Prior knowledge:
The structure holds two protein chains of two kinds.
Chain A: H1 3-10, H2 12-15, H3 22-40, H4 47-58, H5 63-67, H6 73-76, H7 85-103, H8 119-139, H9 144-153, H10 157-174, H11 178-181
Helix pairs in contact in A: 4-7, 9-10
Chain B: H1 13-33, H2 39-44, H3 52-73, E1 87-88, H4 89-106, H5 110-118, H6 122-141, H7 144-150, E2 154-156, H8 160-164, H9 168-193, H10 202-229, H11 231-237, E3 239-243, H12 245-253, E4 259-263, E5 279-280, H13 283-286, H14 289-296, E6 301-305, H15 311-314, E7 322-326, H16 329-338, H17 352-366, H18 380-383
Parallel strand pairs in B: 3-7, 4-5, 4-6, 6-7
Antiparallel strand pairs in B: 1-2
Helix pairs in contact in B: 1-5, 3-9, 5-6, 12-17
Amino acid sequence: MNDRRSESLQDPRREGAPLWNPYVAGVALGLVLLASFVVMGQGLGASGGIARILVTLLAPLMPEAIASNANFRNLLAEGNPLLHFLVFLGLGVLLGGYVGAMTGGRIRIQLERGPRMGRRGRIAYALIGGLVMGFAARLALGCTSGQALSGGATLAAGSWVFMMCVFAGGYAVAWFVRRQWI
Amino acid sequence: MSAPFFPQNAFGLGAGLALTVLIGFGFGFALERGGFGSSRRLAAQFYLYDMTVFKVMFTAIVTAMIGIFGLARVGWLDIDLIWINPTYLWPQIAGGFLLGVGFIVSGYCPGTAIVASASGKVDGVLALLGVTAGIGLFGAAYGGGLEAFHHSGAFGRLLLSDLIGIDPLILALGVALMAGGAFVGVERLERRFAGRAEPGRAPRIVRGAGIAATGSLILAGIVFLAAGHSRRAADLATARENLAPLDLARHIVEGARDWSIIDLREAMEEGSETIPGAVRIGSAELADPAVWTDRLAGHQRIVLFDGGDGAAERIALPAGFRVAVLEGGFPAWRDEILAAPAPSSAASQESTEERRERDALRAFFTGAAAPAPSPSGPPAAVKAGGKKPKASGGCS
Lengths: 182, 396
């Protein structure tokens, strides 16, 4: 049982091609981020694209509720919400992630969890954790990509505060959910 | 032309979106190869036995930061034209903390959940569904207290280097040094906790995590205090300045899209005459801070113009926002830029060069045939007077 962590995290037979050295991966990621600023004048982001897709899906179902919602209506104010940097960026991330996993031999349908975590529990945690993150990303005007990574690289004061608080939040509750991971 | 290219109309929206997919591809690929497609590896960060996430993230931040401020120093990148997240201190503190909680519970952040979904992780797909529901929940709960909180602690475009008062490139190099020191530290942590992450040893690990959490909170506290001291600075940053029609016209002709030009005139019909690139937002709408946060924050400059009735002077500015008011409103624009000069006026005292520039500007804005105002010619989007395709940026 103790071996299961090392098995799933390190065994090359199960994990496909070796991952990049973290510092190499970091430099690669940093250069992509730099290219985004140089070419498009803005950094990377994930949650904003998801919000735009959600609004596009909801708008025909509940047009009045969306039009009167102060948080959503601004996404529709500049025309088609899907014709936006963040939506196309998200598509690229999906493609890049797929190609990376495919060429690395890491495509596998699985529910990733620690050795002491049940299936149902993991499903609930993933959903609830996601829900909290979606709410948090809208509240903070960005997620780890849009605030911590992109804002951090441009020395935006609020983004650095955000980043410290993400680490603080994670470490603060890590103990309570340890059964899920270790 | 120096970078950034898209905000200066170097290419159209279609090409921009195609390049964006390419950038996203690189982002997704690098995340996957860095190991960010695995929730257990991401979560391991918080139990100190695998600090991959920390190492990749800070290497990336330092690389991009030195690139951005280095390119700016040699003049290849105009820092004023790139989107920098505006600071909203309180929602960023609360949102950051909540996002950290969601991260350790779900095992992902929104971006890595997309990568995980692409490689077949069911928990990644579930986290992504959760994120979507959370975004919807925030929208549904929006209004009242939440809305006010969402706009609180506004400092506008505030850089850490401005806050501390040192050169951004020096600060970037300083952050790189600190990151290097932190990497040495986390390598030691990993060696210490490697192989000790079995279920029975969890308490020992979490003791370390508790220290880390305390450290983070203290650090956050320091930033708070610093931000408190800068409140006066932010108040000073809230300002209204005047802009001459000629300066606005020159800026539009140069093809830059980084200014947000707001037409305040309420009773105008669709399609009536306005300044190219301007967006109609009435005074009443601007009373809503959400409009400022979602549509105007992050623009290098916000230009307001009215119908000459002084409405632009009466708009209440949220903290941290600087606006430029077009002198004399639209009537002045019409007289100075669009109208032909009166034959016997002060215009005759202008030098030939000034007159030539005015003629070129008038031709540009009225559509009359005349020599192109700049060698590269007017950018299509501005010439058409259409909508600004500028993305509002960030993770907004």
